[in-house]
Design a protein that fits this description.
- By secondary structure, the protein is mostly helical.
- Helices cover 70% and strands 6% of the residues.
- It is built from 4 helices and 2 strands, in the order H-H-H-H-E-E.
- A two-stranded antiparallel sheet has the order 1-2.
- The longest helix is centred in the last third of the chain and has 27 residues.
């Protein structure tokens, strides 16, 4: 099996997994963010080395412009995801009275 075939299989499996709705619950999303954060921490040295090899970035520059930003974004999402996911009440057109409208992110 070629690498391209393996990638195609993985992509198809991921599409099926996404369509299964298992990624929808907030608890799943939070857990995945925590796992991503942990994985980056566990491989930080290798990431820094790759950024140095590929882009000639110093450790400080690589951390401040690449890894540190990702850590900040993950922290922001972990703090605010529950609030962002709450249904947002919006006005309902008179045509649909007496129903209520909301946006569910």
């Amino acid at each position: 099996m070629t690498t391209l075939d393996e990638i195609s299989i993985i992509v198809e499996q991921q599409k099926k997994f996404f369509l299964s709705q298992q990624t929808k619950p907030l608890s799943f999303r939070i857990e995945m963010l925590k796992r991503l954060q942990s994985s980056i921490r566990n491989h930080e040295k290798e990431i820094l080395e790759a950024l140095h090899t590929d882009l000639h970035k110093s450790e400080f520059e690589a951390f401040s412009t690449e890894i540190g930003i990702v850590y900040e974004e993950i922290s922001l999402y972990l703090r605010k995801l529950k609030r962002w996911a709450k249904p947002n009440k919006v006005g309902t057109p008179m045509l649909f009275f007496p129903s209520k409208s909301m946006i569910i992110s």
